[in-house]
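User: Here's a structure from my thesis project, written as structure tokens. My advisor, Dr. K., wants to see whether a designed sequence matches the one we expressed. Can you design one independently, without my sequence as a hint?
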């Protein structure tokens, strides 16, 4: 997995910072997660092809997380897109986008598929042969979901030396990689574990923004390779975090610690602070390793 941060600051865009948007590349997918203002410009700036984006996941209907979406939908039309575009987000997102298209008499010339979410429980919203995406119900001022991206278990790896030793025909290779034992012509059973190696552990990524401190998500994100968790405030402003249903850097670290994640990435910073290192310093007391998201920064996961 490769994660590219297009924007990771709270509230309003500034000349040097952008609201939330990121791209996750996994198994030939280019998933767009949230779409704040300026997302199109950031996509171009970082050389990400618009045509590779087929699935967009919107966490909630606060402007700094989806105001860039109408423009992106329209740009796809101007670029002559023909492929389907799937948008996953809270109930109401279809009404917002289609109303703008209707009033501007600018319907898309490609299939636009909305998947509106209402469940308060986690649910799988996308699945193919290699990846699943499920919601992470969060605790914010409006209906909000995070998203958990998981690779599926890969096939086992052939032990070529063992396969040659037992003189197994290539016709059985796919069966072996799927974990099946082999029965020879004389009835001897060769256990699969003697013919294969364990596959690499599937990689996982959890996106959690925006939310108050919400420990009930811990079982869902247990031992994920990487957790992106909002850290709008520092503990010195915990009263503002509680009032606005956001989290502090310390609270994000507490979630990471309880879930035993591989790595924590902080983001969604309030612009009131002079240095992002303040967030890392506060979180590192509770959990390590801690990374700081920043516009244009990329992370390799797994």
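Assistant: Designed independently from the structure alone:
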């Amino acid at each position: 997995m490769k994660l590219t941060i297009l924007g990771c600051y709270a509230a309003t865009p500034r000349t040097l910072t952008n609201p939330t948007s990121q791209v996750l590349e996994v198994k030939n997918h280019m998933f767009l997660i949230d779409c704040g203002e300026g997302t199109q410009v950031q996509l171009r700036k970082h050389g990400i092809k618009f045509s590779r984006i087929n699935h967009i996941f919107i966490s909630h209907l606060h402007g700094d997380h989806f105001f860039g979406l109408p423009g992106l939908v329209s740009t796809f039309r101007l670029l002559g897109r023909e492929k389907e575009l799937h948008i996953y987000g809270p109930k109401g997102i279809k009404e917002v986008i289609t109303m703008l298209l209707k009033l501007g008499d600018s319907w898309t010339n490609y299939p636009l598929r909305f998947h509106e979410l209402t469940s308060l429980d986690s649910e799988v919203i996308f699945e193919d042969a290699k990846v699943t995406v499920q919601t992470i119900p969060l605790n914010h001022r409006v209906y909000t979901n995070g998203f958990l991206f998981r690779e599926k278990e890969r096939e086992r790896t052939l032990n070529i030396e063992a396969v040659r030793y037992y003189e197994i025909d290539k016709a059985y290779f796919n069966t072996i990689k799927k974990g099946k034992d082999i029965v020879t012509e004389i009835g001897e059973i060769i256990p699969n574990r003697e013919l294969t190696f364990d596959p690499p552990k599937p990689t996982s990524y959890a996106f959690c923004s925006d939310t108050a401190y919400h420990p009930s998500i811990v079982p869902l994100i247990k031992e994920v390779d990487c957790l992106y968790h909002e850290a709008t405030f520092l503990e010195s402003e915990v009263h503002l975090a509680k009032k606005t249903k956001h989290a502090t850097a310390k609270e994000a670290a507490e979630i990471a610690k309880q879930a035993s994640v591989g790595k924590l990435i902080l983001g969604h910073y309030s612009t009131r602070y002079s240095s992002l290192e303040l967030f890392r310093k506060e979180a590192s007391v509770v959990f390590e390793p801690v990374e700081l998201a920043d516009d244009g920064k990329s992370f390799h996961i797994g």
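When you compare it with your expressed construct, this may help: The radius of gyration is 22 Å.
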